[in-house]
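Hi there,

I know you've been waiting on this one. I reran it after we fixed the sequence typo, so this is the corrected version. Both the input and the resulting structure follow.
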Amino acid sequence: MNGPATGPLPLTLAELLQHGPLGGVTVYGPAERTTEVRAVRIADRLDALDGLQPHTAVVLTAGAATASWTLEMALRKAWEHAAACVVVARDTGRPESVAELADRLGVPLLVVAGDALDTAVRIASALARPEAGRTELIATAARRITAAGTHPVRVVSALHAVLPSTSVALTAPLGELVAGRTAALDERAGPVCVRVEVADPDGGPLAALTARSRSRVAGWDATVREVLGLAVAPLTAWAARERLAAERTGRRAAGLLAELVARAGSAPQGRAADSVTNERAADGASGASEAYDPLLAEAVALGWPVHGPFLLYAVRPAGPDEPGHDHGALLTAWWARGGPGGPLVSHAGCWVAWERPEETPGATAPEETPGAAPEGTPHAADPVAGAEKRLRAALAKPAPPLPVAGAVAGPAAGLAELGPALADAVAAVRVARSGDVVRADRMGPDRFLAALPREALRGPAEMLLAPLLHADRDGSLLRTLATLLDVGTPSAAAARLGVHRNTVTARLERIRSLGCDPDDPALRLALHLACRVLLGRTPPDKTPPDTAAGQP
């Protein structure tokens, strides 16, 4: 009996084993089972194998499989003719004795429980209708995926169960592995790669299903793509459920923060919210009443620190606005992976978090105002410097999924000072540039100017400095005035500009003669702002050296 398979897409041995007539058999030999099966040959004696065609499933009857040596000869002939597999009944010969040979030759030996002739008929029937086998595979996939529900790990496991010799991975938009096998992302794992996009509930990119297979059978990629497509709907439903839960939690968290700040702000003068809470706890400990603060209890449940001191963080998207696009989910997911402080929560148009300063053995609090320590002070004495360093590290790696600006503020002694400290952090983050971190206690004039509409201020600035601009051929007078207002003294200005002190003195006399006296209290602030508007947003410590050093 020789039954060649008809149709352009022959079945693979893996498909026959998993969903076809060979389900439940014992397999000895290679795990790779993506070989095409194009025909069936029933052999009742060994010489019947001399004319085998490649990709043939050889079914040995009892007469050809009487002993181990006959099975060994059959395997060798199958190897010589590139047969797809050898099939024997369990009660014939001793098939397990040639398992090592099957593995060494790379010829699968299939041991079936029933009659070998019945198995041959079932294989021939399946090969005559290969699309029926694939239809059964897809139907099985649909049943398994439905049973998996909307959990991404269970969905990917169902895909692995129905796609033989195939690795599947669910990845986030930036390529992070969410569920599945890393082999699906490795080109060395197989030549066939299928990628199916999973859209979020709003139609935007949510994730991607990537499958990689060792099979080279024509049409297998189309089968894999169809099966992966069955998983898109439950994964989108999973995203919708998680997003709804996150939005509810986010709205509740924002409302809870507002309540905490409002309660602290309304506490009687001299009685902080922390002390009121401690009094309630003391009452409960003495047995007078049961102490319970629902606001603090919910804050603790969300992972927020509730006892100071606090260091405050604020971040915001710094890229161009995208109407209708909510960046909150991306920011909170990024922050959860590597952001300092507690959970991120929406507040006053940006996102904030806070934490207690790092405890350092033997460290003592500074006597001066927190955050005002000079450069080089250890982080134990200047905790805001440590917070700035941690936020800068978070902005660097892992990189946020969109341009982000950050700010730090504090320390706040407790909940009573949380509101003002949050306001400081929010004000600082609004003047921060993309990828930068601003300390709320060190915002110079250029930081404020960064948040102002420069074009709106350019006209008044040019009007104020009109005599100087008319006389300033190369811009040296404007740069000198701006630098002097930044650093305060002619000597410091000369060092910053890279010129001699006498040059700065001469230019300063010229500037005064043009009606722009930097020592006039009524003009000083206006002159400083006008210079910065016209010179741009270059920070004072990065003013380029003066190229007109020889000119007064």
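Quick highlight: The longest strand covers residues 205-213.

Best,
R. S.
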